[in-house]
Amino acid sequence: MVSAKTTIVNPMGMHMRPAQLFIKEVTPFGCDVTINVNGKDINAKSIMNLMAACIKQGSEIEIKCSGDNEEACLKAAVALVESGLGE
Length: 87
Fold this sequence. Notes:
Blueprint: E1 2-7, H1 16-26, E2 32-37, E3 40-43, H2 47-52, E4 60-66, H3 70-82
Antiparallel strand pairs: 1-4, 2-3, 2-4
């Protein structure tokens, strides 16, 4: 398992469009992806879990990847978050 902490920078946080983009980015890697926010682990490949977490701008999150291609997945996920999730 590999993990990294980063901060949500886009103004609207993790709403529907960025959540879909995040899932689209990490799904092809085939590993398990979890986001820890406010002390809770959520399945980062589930649109419902990402939306229910209410991750706002400025929230520090920890992205955890476990399994095949975990390092490449983590690198792509962190880059996407730090770029503003397409916004």
